[in-house]
Amino acid sequence: GDARAGRQKLTTCQGCHGLDGLSKNPEAPNLAGQVESYLARSLEAYRSGDRKNESMNIVAKELSDEDIADVAAYYASIQVDVLPP
Amino acid sequence: GDARAGRQKLTTCQGCHGLDGLSKNPEAPNLAGQVESYLARSLEAYRSGDRKNESMNIVAKELSDEDIADVAAYYASIQVDVLPP
Fold first, then answer.
1. Contact at CB, B81 and A80, closer than 8 angstroms
2. Number of folded domains in chain B?
C-alpha cells in the first residue's frame, strides 16, 4: 500500500480514528502504528461482512483493494513510541 | 478493571501481544494504549463467538468478566506517544 495515497483517502476514517490514528470516540480503536496486515485484514473482513460493525460495514463497502492497502499503509506508518509499563 | 491484576493474567496473551502490548507476530495487533472499552468489547465478542478468530475464540472462552476488565485495563494503561505524520 501507498501511505501517501492513503492519507488522501481518510475523509471518512478521520472522524472516528483521526488523521493521527488516535481514537476520537470510545467506540473506535486507535490505529496509529497498528500492524499493516492486521489493518488490511480488518478492512477486508468489514467489507465482506465477516466482521460485524454497523459503521465499518457501511464504510468498508466503498473501498477498493487498493484503497484498503493504502489506508492500512498510512495508519501503519504513523510512528508510535511505547513507554514500557 | 485493575491494570495491576491484569498484568498477572497475561500468560497466554503475551506470546502474541507482548507484555509491552506490541505485536510479536503479523497476525496479532498491537494493544499498547488501545482504548480500554474497545479491548473489553473485543474480548467479549471473541468469547461469545460474535467475532471470529481461531486463537482468540479459544483463549477468550477461558476469561471471566473480571479477567477481561483487568486485561483490558492493563493494555490500555501502557503509555504511547504518537509522532505526528
1. yes
2. 1
How many alpha carbons lie under 13 Å from residue A29 in its C-beta half-sphere? 24
3-class SS letters over A5-52 = HHHCCCCCCHHHHCCCCCCCCCCCCCCCCCCHHHHHHHHHHHHHCCCC
Mutation for testing the B interface, residue in A4, A20, A35 having most B CBs under 10 Å: A35
Do the Cβ atoms of B75 and B28 come closer than 8 Å?
A: no
Confidence of residue B44 (pLDDT cuts 50, 70, 90): very high
Show the domain range for B15: 3-77
From chain A, the residues in CB contact with B79 under 8 A are 82-83, 85
Nearest residue on chain A to B79, alpha-carbon basis: A83
Kindly state whether residue B83 falls inside one of the protein's structural domains. no
Return the CATH number at A36.
1.10.760.10
Q: What percent of chain A has pLDDT over 70?
A: 99
User: Does residue A84 surpass a pLDDT of 80?
Assistant: no
The predicted complex's ipTM stands at 0.93
Nearest CA to A32 out of A21, A23, A19 is that of A21
Q: A83 falls in which pLDDT band (50, 70, 90)?
A: confident
